[in-house]
């Protein structure tokens, strides 16, 4: 079974087993709704199933309690662990939308079929995402993820076709 990260438990909160989570999902309300199932990954062990009992927000964190965790001692062992969902639990995306994990690692080619590099990370900015491309020469290039630049994303062929803007390589 494939698991995907949706948040990280960064700390415990109080004595009743509540945990402070830094969310890494765009679907916070759906993912952390009471009754939803998450899996917690601890080191190399098989992920353990947890059912959300309560969810609330506190500043930039999601505060969760689980039916299976009743006190701080139980919650403490999950500190630093990733919260995950199975592939079956994933929310379907609109046509032309992708999960970050699908984009990272794709090979980038120009319209002229020149290999330009590999996407290593994604930065979120206010206007649009920026894909970080590791060039073959070891340098990194910031590629704006906009329609004028990203012409085609082909997950089957593990590549992206871009209109490489003049000056991108001159950083």
From TrEMBL:
Pfam families the record matches: PRC_RimM (PF24986), RimM (PF01782)
Domain RimM N-terminal, by residue range, is: 6-88
Any one GO CC term of this protein is:
ribosome
Q: Which UniProt keywords apply?
A: Chaperone, Cytoplasm, Ribosome biogenesis, rRNA processing
Quote the record's domain comment: The PRC barrel domain binds ribosomal protein uS19.
Q: How does it assemble?
A: Binds ribosomal protein uS19.
UniProt cross-references to PANTHER family, sorted A to Z: RIBOSOME MATURATION FACTOR RIMM
Family listed: Belongs to the RimM family.
Which NCBIfam families does the UniProt record give?
Answer: 16S_RimM
Q: How is this protein named in the record? A: Ribosome maturation factor RimM
């Amino acid at each position: 079974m494939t698991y995907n990260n949706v948040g990280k438990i960064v700390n415990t909160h109080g004595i009743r087993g509540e945990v402070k989570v830094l969310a890494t999902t765009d679907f916070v309300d759906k993912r952390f709704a009471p009754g939803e199932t998450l899996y917690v990954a601890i080191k190399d062990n098989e992920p353990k199933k947890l059912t959300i009992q309560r969810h609330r927000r506190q500043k930039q964190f999601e505060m969760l309690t689980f039916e299976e965790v009743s006190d701080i001692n139980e919650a403490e062992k999950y500190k630093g662990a990733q919260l995950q969902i199975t592939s079956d639990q994933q929310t379907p995306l609109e046509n032309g939308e992708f999960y970050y994990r699908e984009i990272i690692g794709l090979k980038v080619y120009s319209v002229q079929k020149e290999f330009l590099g590999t996407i290593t990370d994604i930065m979120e900015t206010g206007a649009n995402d920026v894909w970080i491309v590791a060039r073959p020469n070891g340098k990194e290039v910031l590629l704006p993820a906009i329609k004028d630049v990203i012409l085609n994303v082909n997950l089957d062929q593990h590549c992206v076709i871009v209109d490489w803007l003049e000056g991108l390589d001159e950083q």
